[in-house]
Amino acid sequence: MLNIIKRNFSTSFTIFIFAGVIITLAFISPSFFDFYNILSVLGQATFVAIPAVGLSMIMISGNFNLSFVGVIGVSAVTVGVLMSRGVPLFIALLVGLAICLAVDLSNAFLIIKMKIHPWLCTLATMLAMLGLETAISGGYFISARSSLFMDLRFGSFLGFPFAVWILALVFLVFYYVMHKRPLGFHIYAVGTNPEAARKAGIKVDLVKFIPWIFMAILSWVTSFMYLIQLSGYPPEAANISLLTVILAVFFGMAISTKNVINVPGTVLGAVFVALMGNGLSLAGVSSYWIKLVEGVILIAVIMSNSLGSDELVQL
Amino acid sequence: MAEKILEMRKINKIFPGVHAVKDVDFSVEKGEVRALIGKNGAGKSTLIKVVTGINVPDSGEFWFDSAEIKHFSPSDMNKFGIEAIYQENDLVGHFNVAQSILLNNEITRMKGLTIDKRKMHEQAAEILSKHLMISLDTRRLVRDLSVGERQLVQIAHCLVKKPKLIIFDEPTAPLNASEIERLFAIIRSLKKQGSTIVYISHRLEEIFEIADTVTIMRDGEKVADLELAKSNENELIKHMTGGSFELVAQDIHHKPSEEEMLSVSDMNTEYLKEVAFSLKKGEVLGVFGAEGAGQEDLARAVFGLKKATSGRLELEGRTVKLGKPDRAIKMGIGYVSRDRKEEGLVQDFNILENVTLANIDKYARFGFLKTKEEQSTTKKLIKKLSIMCRNFRNVVRYLSGGNQQKVAISRYFTLKLKVLILDYPTSGIDVEAKSEVYDILKELSKEGTSIILITPEYEEIEALCHRSLVMRDGKIVADIDGSKFSEDLLLSWAIGTGNSREGG
User: What is the 3-state secondary structure (H, E, C) of B197-215?
Assistant: First the structure.
């Protein structure tokens, strides 16, 4: 028994944190386990989970991405501004998708073909996109009003709101792609040992490209979710959750017995972070302290990762 | 005459400054096991990389399975049916055995809708039992397997593609005796099933056991094609060494003193087994052996970079704590690593900064650098070692390999070292720079520094060393005095045909 705990140290440790935090929160605030509260937590988790799934796939393929927080913003404010000028919703959304694809495909090109370090490249595109977002929005809340948005925000299907269905859909699609398709195996292979993948006849560069397309689509979906849930886009809304998204990915890695990033783990991580934020604010803790707790937990999770294995955790 | 599966004619491969493969004809007949041997740097790896499509030859014809091949790339060669098993770890650690064997050949069900894990495990187990005659739990993760088991997974991965030619590159290097037996049984059964095999090794006894024919290379040229049944080990060694060699350096003249400088006893690491030797003051001790016989581990363990599980190190009778490079430097042990690009020098620092880095305390007063003294010492060193540069502000990255090596050694000049360990100090540098490095070593040893010289080149041992150790499989197998040096003797120890440990 002790051996199993030792071997899966990071898994046990992270589940311990998970359980500890949830039990504590349940004690502090009785409304925590209320069904409607859970639904609202899942709704909040969407904002984290969807980009985190995209980031997971990019990290599995051996790269990294920071720029999605800016891409989501530019897509959201562009759609909002176009709608306010009377452009049909459908066209506005297509423009948003085109922006996401353009930025992430150029990221992929710069990183994979031009061999620019993923951190530097996406840091640069992140800054550029955050700048562009502010230039378009002027730093104000961009509102996006449409009856469709209202229906999606407040309506429900089989008792679950739209946001929860989107979360489930994203989870199922990418769980299938990453864990049930040969492509998923290949993305893991090029990320862990590109030389082995090349020798097995896998087209390494092509396989490394694909997660960026997924990332673009997921960034677009996230911007859409912001517009629906908030009837608009507050300045740098996605940027504020950058750390939380990274935390969700690492949390998922820490609870996997193989100690690798994976889609179910990431979604669970996002839900955990949302639960924690929700529980703490129900208990009346200020949002500044919530960030602090998130940071401390991120460090604990990463440490448990590197203690559990000989390899260093690398972003 | 049997049909040829691979035929290469007049193949040439030139790298900047090195003509690695010269007009080589290399052919392999269908169904045979052909060994390829030669000393380190004889060109066998370069040649094999042409076969696997990694190196594009500069000239020559290449025929495979009766078709001429003009376009070279690894994926093309895979398509033609050429597969290679390298020593490197070409597996994904967190994949299980079945995933690894069937990587890029995954089995799906429901018309390709999802992966069929059950079938993958079945097929992987079948390949393992049918071709490799072993049963291995296909659900285990690669990172939990032994080195030998990983190699079996790699072989199985190659077999999935039904190759016509399989290349084994030094496959037995990481294996133990029973794993080697198993590998040979596998190779024999592959041969029986009609595969053709090229087998690269430096262990002659293995070649006689497993191969039918042998091709021998020396200095980038093919020197012989022999049938092993009609040959013997001495003939092979003679072809490998060429019988004679040119002296590249003047022999060392001075005699070391009788004082003992360094003694190592019972040192073990993950790879080294019970290493023990001693070194006199001013003595140059060679360490000879095939690639990966443990020389690098020995150097790093003595210097403290590699963790020793046990062992005792004494310098002038005082015990040196193992595993502490900073302590080793303070006590007077220096180490110039093989990999000067990654470890030896800070490539973006200039000469002066690199020279003073190792002993920065000496030039500092109250935490500030004494620039004048730094500069004058560096200038003297540049002159003394004839380092080719405009001045000491040249960034090391832009110096030639030989000059970089001189900078790496020069740092230790100022320290008045007791022991200097050099790992492949002349690899990748030109002849002139080599002889300058030799002169530096001779001068250092004359001044009383004891030197441990790890080198793959017998000529350097012959010219520079008072005595030489020979290593094989992590053990010191011979300790040979300079008066008895001969290339055949050292090589026969290194590749395992010598008998018992020579007295020393």
Answer: EEEECCCHHHHHHHCCEEE
pLDDT in tens, B99-144: 999 998 899 988 888 899 999 999 999 999 988 888 889 999 998 8
Q: What is the pLDDT of residues A154-188, one digit of tens each?
A: 888 888 889 999 999 999 999 999 999 999 999 99
Q: Three-class SS of residue B103?
A: coil
**A170 to chain B, minimum CA–CA distance in Å?**
17
Structure confidence by residue, pLDDT tens digits, B140-194: 999 888 888 888 899 999 999 889 999 998 888 777 778 888 899 999 999 988 8
ipTM attached to this prediction: 0.80
Interface of A with B (CB under 8 A): 176, 180-182, 185-186, 188-189, 192-193, 195-202, 258-260
CB-nearest partner of B106 from A182, A197, A258: A182
Yes or no, beta carbons of A182 and B108 under 8 Å apart: yes
Nearest to A200 among B93, B103, B108 (CB): B103
- Among chain A residues, the shortest Cα distance to B78 is held by A201
B53 or A283, which is more confident: B53
List the single residue in A with minimal CA-CA distance to B103.
A200
- What are the structural domains, with CATH classification, of chain B? 4-241 (3.40.50.300), 260-350+401-495 (3.40.50.300)
Closest C-alpha among B238, B258, B192, B197 to residue B34: B197
Enumerate the domain spans of chain A: 26-305
How far apart are the C-alpha atoms of B44 and B221, rounded to whole Å?
9
Q: Where are the alpha helices (DSSP H) in B274-388?
A: 295-303, 325-331, 351-357, 360-363, 371-384
Cβ-defined contact of B75 to A197 (cutoff 8 Å): no
> Cβ of A185 and B141 within 8 Å?
no
DSSP-based three-state secondary structure for B455: coil
Contacts of A201 in chain B (CB under 8 A): 75, 78, 104, 161
* Residue whose entry in the numeric block shows the structure tokens 């290949």: A186
pLDDT digit string (tens) for B427-447?
A: 766 666 777 788 888 888 888
* Residue B112 distance to chain A (closest CA, Å): 9
Question: What is the pLDDT at residue B330?
Answer: 81
Size (chain A), residues: 315
Q: Give me B37's structure tokens.
A: 């041997």
- The closest of B406, B387, B299, B422 to B345, measured between CA atoms, is B406
Q: Residues near A65 by Cβ (< 8 Å), separated by ≥ 6? A: A54, A55, A58, A59, A107, A118, A122, A212, A215
Q: What is the pTM of this model?
A: 0.72
A108-134: pLDDT as tens digits: 999 999 999 999 999 999 999 999 999
Measured CA to CA, the distance from residue B256 to residue A238 in angstroms comes to 72
Q: Which residue blocks in A138-256 are alpha helix, DSSP H?
A: 147-154, 162-180, 182-192, 194-199, 204-230, 237-240, 242-255
The per-residue pLDDT for A306 is 64
Query: What does the pLDDT read at residue B246?
Result: 43
What SS3 class is residue B350?
strand
Å from A48 to nearest chain B CA? 27
B199 DSSP β-pair partners: B35, B168
Cβ separation of B94 and A260 shorter than 8 Å? yes
Tell me, what amino acid is at B181?
E
Instruction: Kindly tell me if the per-residue pLDDT of B342 is higher than 70.
Output: no
CA distance B345 to B363: 19
Say if the Cβ atoms of A258 and B99 lie within 8 Å.
Answer: no
Q: Which residues of A touch B104 (CB under 8 A)?
A: 182, 186, 197, 200-202
Q: Chains A, B: CB contacts under 8 A, how many?
A: 59
Distance (Å) from the alpha carbon of A122 to chain B's nearest alpha carbon = 26
Instruction: Just give the CATH number of A26-305.
Output: 1.10.3470
- Cβ within 8 Å, pair B92-A193: yes
